[in-house]
Specification:
The structure holds two protein chains of two kinds. By secondary structure, chain A is an alpha/beta fold. In chain A, 65% of the residues lie in helices and 10% in strands. In chain A, the strands form three sheets. Chain A has a six-stranded mixed β-sheet, sandwiched between helices. Chain A has a four-stranded antiparallel β-sheet with strand order 2-1-4-5, with no helix packed on it. A two-stranded antiparallel ribbon of chain A has the order 7-8. The radius of gyration of chain A is 35 Å and the shape is elongated. Chain B is an alpha/beta fold. Chain B has two domains: 310 residues, ABC transporter type 1, transmembrane domain (ABC transporter transmembrane region fold), CATH 1.20.1560; 263 residues, Rossmann fold. Chain B has a six-stranded mixed β-sheet. A four-stranded antiparallel β-sheet of chain B has the order 2-1-4-5, with no helix packed on it. The chains are: A alpha/beta, B alpha/beta. Chains A and B meet through helix 2, helix 3, helix 4, helix 5 and helix 7 of A and helix 1, helix 2, helix 3, helix 4 and helix 5 of B.
C-alpha cells in the first residue's frame, strides 16, 4: 500500500516534468491513434480479400486489385506517421531526462554541505547518472509502447464490434485475465527491484571508495580482503537481481498464455459462427488477426509496466535527491556584500555536527581589519569547523558571526564567500587546464595577471616545464602533479583574486621549506591590509600573528599574542616548547 | 568480447537450456496457423463442429506447453545472465585491483567505476534478452518460411525475398547506430565525471562561488549528450516504419499470389489465411529481433569496454618466488643476527621514468641502508622524494638499475609478500568506511585489540580513538569524512604500524600534525624495536634531523647524503634548507 503511494507520488512528479512538452505529447498521442487505426484497417482489407478468394474459379481479381491499391497507400502513410511519432517520443524522453539530470545537478549546488559530507559521493553519482539512465529507458519504452498499446486496444475493440458483437464480448471478458496476471506480477516485484537498487547503490559505494583509493589498497596488499567484501555484496546483489529479473520476466509468458487461450476461444466461436453463416471466413481471419493484436498490446503494456516499475524505483531515488531540502536560501533582503574591510566578530557562537555532541560552545572572537589570526591546537580541535562556520558552509546553531558589523546570514552567500580566499588542507583541482584552475577566482584576469600570480606563488617555473605549459590538461585528482605542485596551484588561484579575508588551512604543509620561505614572503605581501585566518603549524607563522587562538576540543582555551601566551605558561607554552624536543 | 564468454562456462547448462526451451515454445507457436487452416478448410467447409472443438482444444494445449517451456527458459536465462554478470564483475574488480600504479594512472578512476557499474548492468540486460530471444526470433522467422514452403512453393518464394530485404534494412540501421551508441556512452562518462568532481571539490567550488558556472558546464555537457542521444534515436526510429512497410507490402503480394494459386486450384482459402498468419508472425518476431539487436549492440559495446579493461595487463609481472625470511620482520629483533651485513634497502643506479612523463623522475640513485637505520629524505617539490620511496614496495618498477631489499631484487619477491614487509603511510591519508578497528586491521588481518592499541599509541592516535564514541568500534564514514585531516593521518600511520613492518615509509605523512604530535610520533617510532628500517620523507628539516642518514634530492638526483652534520659541511642544498628553517627560529628567539 505504501509502495503504491510512493509510486503514485513519483509518477506525479514525472508528469510534472512532462508538462512542458504537452503539445508534443498531444501530437504523439494523435499520431499513435492514427497509426493504430490504419494498422488495424489492414487486417480488415485482408479479410475482405480472403472472402474474394472463395475457391477455384470464384476469385474476384478486380476487387482484389482495388483492395491492394488501397492497402498500399495506407501502409505508406502509416510508416511515415510512425516515424514521426518515434522522433517525437525520442525528443520528449531525452529532453525530460536532460531536465531531470540538470535539476539533480542544480540541486547538488544548493545542497547543504552537511548532506554532502554525510553521503558517499558514489551513491549520489549513482543516483544522478545510473538511476536517471535507467529511468530514461523506462520512460522511452513507456512512450513508444504505452500510447500505441492503449490505442490498439481501443481501436481493435471498435473494429471488432463492427464485425461481430458476441465474439467481441468474449474477447473483452477474457482479456482482463491477462491484465490481472501482469498487475499481480508487477506489484509483487516492486520491492524486489527496490532492494536490487539499494544493494546496487551499496556496491557502487564500495567500488567508488576502493577504486578511488586503489593505491592504498595495494600498498596494504588488501586486494584479497576487499575482494571478499566485494564478493559478499555482489553475491547478495546476484541473489536479489535474480529474483527481480526472474519474477518480473514471468509477465510475458503469463500473459501470452492467457492470450493463447483467448485466441483458441475466438477460433472456436468464430468457426462455429462461420458454420452458422453469422461471419465470413475472411471475417474470421480478420478476427483471429485482431485477437492476436488485441492481446499483444496487453503484453507490451505489461512489459512496459514492469520496466516502469524498475524505472520508477530509480526515479524515486533521483527525486529523493532532488527533493532533499536545500540549504537555507539567502534572506530575501540579503545584502550584496562589497568591499569588505575584514572585521570579523564571533559572538557566543555554538555549533555541533550532531545535536547530542556539542562541539563549539560560546565562542567569542573579535578581529579587526588587517589582523592576522593564527589558529593552533592539537589536531581535531575544531579548526576546520571554525572555517566551515566562517565561510558559512555550515550555519551556527547559536550566537552569530558578523562581517564588518553585518550578520553573515544577512548577506548573500556568494558575496560573503567572495570576500574570502581559501587554501584548504586537501588540495583539490578541477579537471581542465592549469589556466582554468588558476583563473577560477577571476576568469576575466589577463594573461599577465595570471602569470604574475603564478610567479608570486612560485608555480610559474614548474608550470612552464609541464608538456603543455599553462594549457596542460590535468585530471580530476591532479593526476601526475605532486601534492606540493597542486598546493602551489591552489595558492596561485587565491593569489590572483586577492580577497580581503584569507583562510589558509595548513596551506603550505606539503611544500618544501625553500619554496615555502618564498611563498611566506608572498603571503606576507598578500596579507598586508587583509584579515587572515591561518591554521598554522609553523611557529614562525604563529609568532608573527596578532592574535593566536589556541583551540582544544572545540573551545578556544587561550587567546592572545605570542609573548602574552608564553608568559601565561599554559597549553600554548607547552606546545611551543615541544617543538624543540 | 569473446574473452568475457569464458565466464559463461559455469552456466553452460543454463545458456543451452534457456534458448532451447524458447525454441520449443516457438515451435509450438508455429503449429497454430496450421491448426487454424485446418479449422477453416475442414471444420468450417465440412461443417464439422466436433472437429472444430477438438482443434481448439489442441490450440489451448499448445499454449499450455508453451507456457511451461517459456517459464523454464526465463528462469535459466535470468540465472545465466545474473550469474555471468556477477562473475565478470567480481573478476573485473579483481583485475582492476591487480593493476599497478602505472595503469591506474592511465585508465582513470571514473572510467573504471563506470565499467564496474552501468556497463555491467547493460551487459546483464543484454545477455538476459539475448538468451531469451536471440534463437527464438530467427527460429520463428525461418520456421515460418519452412512452413510456408510446406504449403505452397510459389507463395513461399515471397518469404524468401522478403526476409533478406528485411534483414538488410534491420542490420544496416544497426551497423550505423552501433558506433554512435558507443559515443553516447563516452559522453555519459563525461557527464558522470563532472558530477563526481563537483561532489569531491564542493568546498573549493563553493568558496569560489562557482555554482552557477558549474551548472552551466554541466548543462552544456548534458545538452551534448542529449543531442547525440536524439541523433541516434532518429536513426533507430527508422527501423519500425521501414520494416512495417516491407512486411505489409509482402502481405499484399502474398494475397495476390494466393488468389492466383486458389484460382488455379492449387491452394485452399484456409491455407492462404495460414500463409498470411505466418507472414504476420514474421513481422512480430522481426521487430522483437530488431529491438533485441539494439539492446545487444548496446550491451556488446559495454562488453567491449569491459573487455578492454581486462586487456590492460599489469605492466608489473608478479613472478618473484623469493619468500622473505623471518629475520626481515621486526620480530627478529631479539634474535642474533647473521645477516647483519646485508643492507635492508639498496638502490643500485636506479632510474625512473613514468609512462607518460618525458623526463626521468629519478636518475642514478645509488645508496644502501642497513637494517634498523632511519633514513631522512628531503628535497624540493617535484624533486622525486615520493617517486623514490614508491620504488621500495614496488609501486612502480625502476626503468633502470635495480632496487634490492635484504639482498634480493624487489622483482624476486612475490608482490604480496613484499608489501607485507613494507609499511607505507601515503601522503594522502585515506581511510575507509568501517570501524576504526577494521581500518587498522588492514595492516594485519588478525591483529588483536592490544596490538592495535600499541600501534595507535605509537602513532599518537590514542586520544583520537579514545575520544570517539565506541573507541575502536567507532564507524568511519566513506573517505574518512568524519575525521579531521590530522586524525586521519595519525590513524593511517597506526595502520601501517599494526603490521610491524620490516621497513616503514612515512611519505610526508605528518604534515597535518602539529609540532608536538609530530615530535612525539618520531620519538615513539624511534623507540620501536631496533630492527625496523624507517624512511621519513619530509619538508621539515626538524623531522629528519636525527636520521642516521639523510638523502637530499634535487631534481631527481641525489644532491647529498650523510648525517645532518656532514651535510651541513658538504651539501649546499641541505644547508640552504636547514638554515632557512632554523636561522629564522634562532633570529626570533
Amino acid at each position: 500500500m505504501k509502495n503504491r503511494k510512493i509510486r503514485k507520488g513519483t509518477l506525479g512528479k514525472v508528469m510534472h516534468y512532462l508538462k512542458k512538452y504537452w503539445f508534443l505529447m498531444a501530437l504523439s498521442v494523435l499520431f499513435a491513434g492514427v497509426t493504430v487505426a490504419m494498422t488495424l484497417y489492414i487486417p480488415i482489407l485482408v479479410g475482405r480479400a480472403v472472402d474474394l478468394i472463395a475457391g477455384s474459379g470464384a476469385v474476384d481479381f478486380v476487387g482484389i486489385i482495388r483492395i491492394l491499391k488501397e492497402g498500399c497507400a495506407i501502409i505508406l502513410a502509416t510508416a511515415v506517421l510512425q516515424w514521426l511519432m518515434n522522433m517525437i517520443n525520442n525528443k520528449i524522453t531525452y529532453q525530460v531526462i536532460r531536465d531531470v539530470r540538470n535539476e539533480a545537478f542544480d540541486k547538488l549546488q544548493s545542497l547543504p554541505l552537511s548532506y554532502l559530507d554525510r553521503h558517499p559521493s558514489g551513491e549520489v553519482v549513482s543516483r544522478m547518472i545510473a538511476d536517471v539512465d535507467q529511468f530514461a529507458d523506462g520512460l522511452l519504452m513507456g512512450f513508444t509502447q504505452f500510447f500505441t498499446g492503449a490505442a490498439t486496444i481501443l481501436g481493435t475493440l471498435v473494429f471488432m464490434l463492427t464485425i461481430n458483437v458476441w465474439i467481441t464480448l468474449l474477447v473483452v471478458v477474457l482479456t482482463p485475465l491477462s491484465l490481472f496476471v501482469a498487475k499481480f506480477i508487477a506489484t509483487h516485484t516492486y520491492d524486489m527491484f527496490r532492494l536490487q537498487s539499494e544493494t546496487r547503490a551499496e556496491q557502487t559505494g564500495l567500488i567508488d571508495e576502493m577504486i578511488g583509493n586503489q593505491k592504498v589498497v595495494q600498498a596494504f596488499a588488501m586486494e584479497d580482503r576487499i575482494q571478499d567484501k566485494f564478493d559478499e555484496i555482489d553475491r547478495r546483489l546476484e541473489k536479489c537481481s535474480l529474483k527481480a529479473i526472474f519474477y518480473s520476466s514471468l509477465t510475458n509468458p503469463g500473459t501470452r498464455f492467457v492470450n493463447n487461450v483467448v485466441y483458441a476461444c475466438v477460433a472456436l466461436t468464430g468457426a462455429l459462427a462461420a458454420i452458422g453463416g453469422a461471419i465470413s471466413v475472411g471475417g474470421l481471419a480478420t478476427f483471429l488477426s485482431y485477437a492476436n493484436q488485441y492481446t499483444k498490446p496487453f503484453n507490451d503494456i505489461s512489459s512496459v509496466v514492469t520496466e516502469l516499475q524498475n524505472s520508477l524505483a530509480c526515479a524515486s531515488r533521483v527525486f529523493e535527491l532532488i527533493e532533499e531540502p536545500s540549504q537555507i536560501p539567502d534572506a530575501p533582503d540579503a545584502v550584496e556584500f562589497k568591499d569588505a574591510y575584514g572585521a570579523v566578530e564571533l559572538e557566543h557562537v555554538s555549533f555541533s555536527y550532531t545535536k547530542d555532541k556539542p562541539l563549539i560552545e560560546d565562542l567569542n572572537l573579535s578581529v579587526k581589519p588587517g589582523q592576522r589570526i593564527a589558529i593552533v591546537g592539537p589536531t581535531g580541535c575544531g579548526k576546520t569547523t571554525l572555517i566551515n562556520l566562517l565561510m558559512r558552509f555550515y550555519d551556527v546553531d547559536g550566537g552569530g558571526i558578523r562581517m564588518d558589523g553585518t550578520d553573515i546570514r544577512r548577506m548573500t552567500r556568494k558575496s560573503l564567500r567572495s570576500a574570502y580566499g581559501m587554501v584548504l588542507q586537501d588540495t583539490w583541482l578541477k579537471s581542465g587546464t592549469i589556466r582554468e584552475n588558476i583563473l577560477m577566482g577571476r576568469p576575466d584576469a589577463t594573461e599577465e595577471e595570471m602569470i604574475r600570480a603564478a610567479k608570486e606563488a612560485h608555480a610559474d617555473s614548474f608550470i612552464r616545464r609541464l608538456p603543455g605549459g599553462y594549457d596542460t590538461v590535468i585530471q580530476e585528482d591532479g593526476g601526475s602533479l605532486s601534492q606540493g605542485q597542486k598546493q602551489l596551484l591552489c595558492i596561485s588561484r587565491v593569489m590572483l583574486c586577492l580577497p580581503p579575508v584569507l583562510i589558509l588551512d595548513e596551506a603550505t604543509s606539503s611544500i618544501d621549506t625553500r619554496t615555502e620561505i618564498r611563498i611566506q614572503k608572498a603571503f606576507q605581501r598578500m596579507m598586508e591590509g587583509r584579515t587572515s585566518f591561518v591554521v598554522a603549524h609553523r611557529l614562525s607563522t604563529i609568532r608573527e600573528s596578532d592574535v593566536i587562538l589556541v583551540m582544544k576540543d572545540g573551545h578556544i582555551i587561550e587567546q592572545g599574542n605570542h609573548e602574552e601566551l608564553l608568559g601565561r605558561n599554559g597549553f600554548y607554552a607547552k606546545l611551543y616548547n615541544s617543538q624543540n624536543l | 568480447m569473446r574473452k568475457l564468454l569464458v565466464y559463461l562456462k559455469d552456466y553452460k547448462k543454463e545458456t543451452v537450456l534457456a534458448p532451447l526451451f524458447k525454441m520449443l515454445e516457438a515451435s509450438f507457436e508455429l503449429f497454430v496457423p496450421l491448426v487454424v487452416a485446418a479449422i477453416i478448410d475442414e471444420g468450417i467447409a465440412g461443417q464439422d463442429r466436433f472437429f472444430i472443438l477438438q482443434r481448439c482444444g489442441i490450440l489451448i494445449l499448445l499454449g499450455l506447453i508453451g507456457l511451461v517451456c517459456s517459464v523454464t527458459a526465463q528462469y535459466y536465462a535470468a540465472r545465466a545472465a545474473v550469474g555471468f554478470t556477477g562473475q565478470v564483475r567480481r573478476a573485473l574488480f579483481k583485475h582492476i585491483q591487480s593493476l599497478s600504479y602505472t595503469e591506474i594512472d592511465t585508465i582513470g578512476t571514473s572510467t573504471m567505476i563506470t565499467r564496474m557499474t552501468s556497463d555491467m548492468n547493460q551487459v546483464q540486460n543484454g545477455l538476459n534478452l539475448t538468451l531469451r530471444l536471440f534463437l527464438r526470433s530467427p527460429f520463428v522467422v525461418f520456421g515460418a518460411m519452412i512452413m510456408a514452403f510446406q504449403i505452397d512453393v510459389k507463395c513461399a518464394l515471397i518469404f524468401l525475398v522478403t526476409i533478406p530485404i528485411l534483414s538488410v534494412v534491420v542490420f544496416g540501421i544497426m551497423l550505423i547506430s552501433i558506433p554512435l551508441y558507443r559515443k553516447v556512452q563516452q559522453r555519459l562518462d563525461g557527464v558522470l565525471g563532472i558530477a563526481r568532481e563537483n561532489l569531491i571539490g564542493v568546498r573549493v567550488l563553493r568558496a569560489f562561488c562557482k555554482e552557477d558556472e558549474e551548472k552551466e558546464r554541466f548543462w552544456k555537457k548534458n545538452e551534448e549528450l542529449t543531442g547525440l542521444q536524439k541523433y541516434v534515436g532518429r536513426i533507430s526510429a527508422l527501423l519500425n516504419p521501414l520494416t512495417y512497410v516491407i512486411i505489409n507490402l509482402a502481405i499484399l503480394i502474398l494475397i495476390h499470389t494466393g488468389a492466383v494459386q486458389v484460382e488455379l486450384g492449387i491452394l485452399a482459402q484456409g491455407q492462404v489465411v495460414a500463409l498470411y498468419n505466418y507472414m504476420s508472425q514474421i513481422l512480430v518476431e522481426l521487430i522483437k529481433l530488431a529491438n533485441l539487436i539494439i539492446s545487444m549492440t548496446r550491451a556488446a559495446a559495454c562488453a567491449r569496454r569491459i573487455q578492454s579493461v581486462f586487456e590492460i595487463r599489469s605492466s608489473m609481472p608478479d613472478t618473484g618466488t623469493e619468500e622473505p625470511g623471518p629475520l626481515m620482520g621486526v620480530s627478529a629483533a631479539t634474535e642474533p643476527e647473521p645477516a647483519a651485513a646485508v643492507p635492508a634497502v639498496e638502490f643500485c643506479h636506479v632510474n625512473l621514468r613514468y609512462a607518460d612523463g618525458g623526463e626521468d623522475a629519478l636518475s642514478d640513485i645509488d645508496f644502501s641502508v642497513m637494517p634498523g637505520e632511519t633514513v631522512g629524505i628531503i628535497g624540493g617539490t617535484g624533486s622525486g622524494k615520493s617517486s623514490l620511496v614508491n620504488l621500495i614496495p614496488r609501486f612502480y618498477d625502476a626503468t633502470g638499475g635495480s632496487v634490492r631489499i635484504y639482498g634480493h631484487d624487489v622483482k624476486d619477491y612475490p608482490v604480496k609478500s613484499l608489501r607485507e614487509l613494507v609499511g607505507v603511510v601515503p601522503q594522502k591519508a585515506a581511510l575507509f568506511h568501517g570501524s576504526i578497528r577494521e581500518n587498522l586491521q588492514w595492516g594485519k588481518k588478525d591483529a588483536s585489540d592490544d596490538e592495535i592499541m600499541e600501534a595507535v599509541r605509537t602513532a599518537q592516535a590514542e586520544e583520537v580513538v579514545l575520544g570517539k564514541e565506541g573507541g575502536l568500534d567507532y564507524e568511519i564514514e566513506q573517505g574518512g569524512r568524519n575525521l579531521s585531516g590530522g586524525q586521519k593521518q595519525r590513524l593511517t600511520i597506526a595502520r601501517a604500524l599494526v603490521k610491524k613492518p620490516g621497513i616503514l615509509i612515512l611519505d610526508d605523512s605528518s604534515s597535518a600534525l602539529d609540532f608536538a604530535t609530530d615530535a612525539a610520533l618520531r620519538a615513539a617510532v624511534r623507540e620501536l624495536s631496533g630492527q625496523m628500517t624507517v624512511f621519513i620523507v619530509s619538508q621539515r628539516a626538524s623531522s629528519i634531523l636525527h636520521a642516521d642518514k639523510i638523502l637530499v634530492l634535487d631534481d631527481g638526483k641525489v644532491a647529498g647524503m650523510g648525517t645532518s652534520e656532514e651535510l651541513l659541511q658538504s651539501c649546499q642544498v641541505y644547508r640552504e634548507i636547514y638554515e632557512t628553517q632554523f636561522r629564522k627560529e634562532a633570529a626570533n628567539r
